[in-house]
Amino acid sequence: MLYQIASFLLDVVGGLLTGACLLRLYMQWQRVAFSNPIGGLVFALTDWLIMPLRRVIAPVGRWDLSSLVAAALLQLVQYFLLWLILGAGAAWAWLPWLALFGLLRVAISGLIGLLIVYAVMSWMQARSPLADVVARLCAPVLRPFQRIIPLVGGVDLSPLAVLVLLQVVMIVLGHLQAGVLQG
């Protein structure tokens, strides 16, 4: 029971901070202005880690590698702490793999969350700075599907198709992670 509680709390905190680092990376890559409520939250959650890393790791083009490294480090720390709680067995060599799978899981979960918010806001025709930011972040993912899937009664079903695909990717990722851990 204590392991489940610790795992849950580490997953929440690690997922939130890792997600914020990945969102910062993605917003910079998409050239989304940070002068909105989402940008302010992302900066507040990540500046303490990313700014010191930025002194050592320079951006490469539109890619802020310090945000990516910060996200990977957060996942590594999360799985290291879980490893210590479990009793620090011989499986320490798997920690980088667990961190990589955790990073992918957080990225996919974050994208799923963005798509759900986008779909709900599009149904309500909400016009706000938040809706514009979410739409800009979802556009590159939805665009290929919107070319293939026609509007049905004026409703864009492409977010639903992407959500289904992302759930399939999460299932495959879970099986790959289990396969790697089993050897």
TrEMBL record:
It comes from the Bacteria. The chain crosses the membrane at residues 6-26, 38-57, 77-95, 102-121, 160-181. InterPro entries: CCB3/YggT. GO terms for cellular component: membrane. It holds the Pfam family CCB3_YggT. Keywords: Membrane, Transmembrane, Transmembrane helix. Belongs to the YggT family. This is YggT family protein. It comes from Acidovorax carolinensis.
